[in-house]
């Protein structure tokens, strides 16, 4: 699971793992958890998103089957930065076979970008040679996430 800092990666991970919201601090390094749904185990690596950590992301690519890229829909100032990082990841040869789930987080905030705006600003319509799916997330995310996780597992 990758994305810019403060996108909500760690909160999402522990909401899925524990079924409840927990207080988090910025991730320096990574968190790794196994999350089980319908007898399917997902090993989820939540890697810190600060700009100084991002060059290290590529060290986590080997063997990656799926990428969950988390975007803060209310962070209009950094959506271009998120797009650049997303495309840098998916264009890396180590990630060419990974399927991609875009997790558009924080849709419940008043200034959040709408789904079509996120797709446009991230350049998702130009991703043609990849198995890519986007998920728009509001406050209660468990059901939509798990339907997308099933897509991720079955893709």
TrEMBL record:
Gene3D superfamilies in UniProt: P-loop containing nucleotide triphosphate hydrolases
Top-rank taxon: Eukaryota
Binding site for Mg(2+): 10, 27
GO MF annotation, one: GTPase activity
UniProt keyword annotations, A-Z: GTP-binding, Magnesium, Metal-binding, Nucleotide-binding
Keyword set includes Magnesium: yes
Keyword Iron-sulfur: no
GO process terms (BP): establishment of cell polarity
Residues where GTP binds: 3-10, 49, 105-108
Protein name in the entry: ADP-ribosylation factor-like protein 14
Source species taxonomy: Eukaryota, Metazoa, Chordata, Craniata, Vertebrata
């Amino acid at each position: 699971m990758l994305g810019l800092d403060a996108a909500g990666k760690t909160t999402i991970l522990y909401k899925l793992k524990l079924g409840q919201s927990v207080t988090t601090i910025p991730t320096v390094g990574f968190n790794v958890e196994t999350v089980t749904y319908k007898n399917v185990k997902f090993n989820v690596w939540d890697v810190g998103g600060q700009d100084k950590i991002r060059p290290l992301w590529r060290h986590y690519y080997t063997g990656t089957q799926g990428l969950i890229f988390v975007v803060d829909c209310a962070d209009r100032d950094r959506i271009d930065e998120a797009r650049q990082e997303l495309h840098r990841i998916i264009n890396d040869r180590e990630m060419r076979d990974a399927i991609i789930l875009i997790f558009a987080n924080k849709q419940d905030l008043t200034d959040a970008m709408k789904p079509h705006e996120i797709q446009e600003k991230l350049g998702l319509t130009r991703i043609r040679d990849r198995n890519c799916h986007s998920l728009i997330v509001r406050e209660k995310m468990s059901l939509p996430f798990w339907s997308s996780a099933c897509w991720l597992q079955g893709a």
